[in-house]
Amino acid sequence: xxxxxxxxxxxxxxxxxxxxxxxxQVSLRKVAEEAGVSMGQIQHYYSSMQALIRDALDRAxxxxxxxxxxxxxxxxxxxPEAVLRAxxxxxxxxxxxxxxxxxxxxxxxxxxxxxxxxxxxxxxxxDEMLTFTAxxxxxxxxxxxxxxxxxxxxxxxxxxxxxTSLGVDLALGYRTPEAAGRLLDHHIEQVLR
Length: 193
Description:
The chain is mainly alpha-helical.
């Protein structure tokens, strides 16, 4: 097993433990048991439990971003509206892995209150993503024959905030994927009018 595969195995153990019992239940001993490795092997790859949890959170965010990219690629279209919908709907995917990653992010959010590095990883909407989404909104409005409203960046931010919130609702079992999808589609319609 190579080094990256070992790190991935450890991160997977952190995700599983945090989803089952909360981030406060994650310890070196429990991660070692879950991953089937020694505590020394964990310490070989991570200088502290905090470093392991930060890496697990960073990898969860990258996995969610990959899910969004995959949804866009699967849409196989050049329509800005279809790409916009694919991006946003990726956060409310009924796939088990998406829900698991969202549950882990929720478990880690409590720790982010006192850890600025973790808070930065969880911060909504980076500049590049908001710029891309605002461009999609502008192009989709033009495609529908609407004029730009000079609010596209704020609209993009609200869209991602709503999609993230709905993803949290799904992860916690508050909404069904269908209900979340209807609400998100309703909002997208409002944005594109």
